[in-house]
Automatic annotation (TrEMBL):
UniProt keyword terms in alphabetical order: Glycoprotein, Repeat, Signal
Name of protein: 6-bladed beta-propeller
PANTHER family xrefs: PEPTIDYL-GLYCINE ALPHA-AMIDATING MONOOXYGENASE (PTHR10680:SF14)
Keyword Repeat: yes
Record bears the keyword Glycoprotein: yes
């Protein structure tokens, strides 16, 4: 499932297909039931057999139960939503880049529970500065791309502050730095993968390490097979193949298990 932001739609691509299928939006920019406005993220909720969309331009998180886009459910309103993730219990986590926080939501919530940030904009360990993509692991630890702080933060369940697990050494292109982080995922070994957007690379960090390693790109901005151009999103499949949203190249690249 792909959030095709500037076409205001969600596209589903089956394995080995040469074209996708529009499953949400695709009816121009707008806020009607069959419209989206610059969707930034999508997750699939297996428990409810539905997909949930960060409808960024409309400042809402919306749920569709089918591909006919009938009777969509607005889960959250008035939120600068970019990152979405869901835990094994079906709780939804949403990053709010304006309020510099991440909240956890369950069905019927009107406010959500604060789980990270919420202490104003800043770079202290209890603060965030434009949180972007997020990831939740099996232990309910939350990983946050802290965009303007050029770092990835890990917040344990019930934690009052986070720990820096990638970057955090200012903006730059050394192996200790990010510029800035966007997509973030964690594998079953606890390795942290970060889309380092303006450095045109994907990095892997082990928690506690001072430096990361370059896995994808790092060969300058371009469209060759060893290059990416503003990578923004990351995802694993069941075989731990890595998918990279190669934003400026208008493509998604697949890398076999690394």
């Amino acid at each position: 499932y792909i959030a095709d932001a500037w076409n205001h739609r969600i596209v589903k691509w089956k394995l080995n297909s040469n074209q996708g299928q529009i499953i949400a939006g695709g009816n121009g920019y707008g806020n009607q039931n069959n419209q989206l406005s610059s969707p930034m993220n999508i997750i699939f909720d297996k428990q409810n057999n539905s997909f949930i969309i960060a409808d960024w331009g409309n400042r809402r998180v919306i749920r569709y139960f089918d591909q006919n886009q009938t009777n969509p459910q607005i889960l959250i309103s008035n939120i600068s939503c970019e990152g979405l993730t869901i835990d094994r219990d079906g709780f939804i986590y949403v990053s709010d880049s304006k309020n510099n926080e991440v909240r956890r939501w369950k069905q019927g919530d009107t406010k959500g529970e604060l789980v990270a940030g919420g202490n104003g904009q800043g770079n202290h360990l209890n603060q965030l500065n434009k949180p972007a993509n997020i990831f939740i692991d099996e232990d309910y630890s939350l990983y946050i791309s802290d965009y303007n702080n050029h770092r990835v933060m890990k917040w344990g369940k019930y934690a009052k502050e986070g720990t820096i697990v990638a970057g955090g050494n200012g903006e730059g292109d050394s192996l200790k730095q990010l510029s800035p982080p966007e997509g973030v995922v964690v594998d079953h070994l606890g390795h942290i993968y970060v889309a380092d957007r303006e450095n045109n690379r994907v990095m892997r960090w082990c928690e506690g390490d001072e430096e990361g390693e370059i896995l994808v790109g790092g060969n300058g901005q371009g469209n060759q097979s060893n290059q990416v151009n503003w990578p923004t999103g990351l995802s694993f499949d069941n075989e731990e193949n890595l998918y990279v949203v190669d934003w400026e190249n208008r493509r998604i690249q697949k890398y076999e298990k690394i």
